[in-house]
Design a protein that fits this description.
- By secondary structure, this protein is mainly alpha-helical.
- It folds into two domains: 101 residues; 112 residues, no CATH class.
- It contains ten helices and four strands; from the N terminus they run H-H-H-H-H-E-E-E-H-E-H-H-H-H.
- The strands form two sheets. The chain has a two-stranded antiparallel sheet with strand order 1-4.
- Strand 2 and strand 3 form a beta hairpin.
Length: 226
């Protein structure tokens, strides 16, 4: 087993603003080929929408937990908007599921799970949950996009999404991408908030900053829903 070099991890490159365009292009091509070549899943639109709804409700419940002390009205407005969009655009989500756009993807695609060697290495997929790996490619990429946004480089995630859409010919409208990005940022806020109860002040401040940052990203994408 060989340790991957820390200096070539995507999060490290983003933090240092040292990401070579050629490495980004190689990653975009690899991800696009992976999703296009993956076996398509058969799932009913109703089942797919219910899964998204359940995850949004869990996000909401954890983010509004009294121990988290997050801004309740912001969290409530965010999830009200996302659930409304989900209901009003049921046909859009049904098309993704029943049109066999869903694949078995990564499930936890983050900058820290990518090493940009000459041939990029993507690791730490959610091996413990087949259901969480059953995703729309644009949803998987949304997780990566919001991770890049958290590091103040939103254009990187957008470039990867655009590369996949161009290579695959995916006709998804931008509203779907915004939904996925807002949902995934809400999820990242939830994961950060889950650490808050019982923490000492210094550690709590770090996780609170993380949660609030992802909450702001989720709100930004939700405001772009059309």
């Amino acid at each position: 087993m060989r340790r991957l070099p820390d200096r070539l991890m995507l999060d490290s490159l983003l933090i240092r603003q040292a990401l070579p365009p050629v490495r980004l292009h190689a990653l975009a091509a690899q991800l696009a080929h992976f999703y296009v070549g993956s076996q398509r899943l058969s799932l009913s639109g109703r089942t797919y929408r219910q899964r998204l709804r359940e995850e949004l409700l869990i996000n909401h419940a954890i983010l509004t937990n009294a121990e988290s002390k997050l801004p309740l009205e912001r969290v409530k407005r965010l999830h009200t908007r996302l659930l409304y969009f989900l209901d009003e655009n049921a046909g859009l989500l049904d098309t993704r599921a029943e049109g066999r756009y869903l694949v078995e993807g990564h499930g936890d695609l983050r900058p820290e799970h990518i090493c940009l060697l000459e041939h990029p290495v993507v690791f730490d997929c959610l091996e413990f949950s087949e259901r969480l790996r059953q995703v729309d490619p644009l949803d998987d990429l949304a997780f990566l996009t919001v991770g890049c946004e958290r590091l103040d480089l939103p254009d990187v995630g957008k470039a990867l999404c655009d590369a996949y859409r161009k290579f695959s010919g995916d006709p998804a409208r931008n509203g779907l991408v915004e939904l996925y990005c807002s949902y995934r940022a809400s999820l990242r806020a939830r994961l950060a908030a889950a650490h808050l109860p019982g923490l000492a002040s210094q550690a709590r401040a770090l996780w609170m900053d993380n949660a609030l940052s992802f909450l702001s990203i989720a709100e930004r994408h939700a405001s772009a829903l059309i």
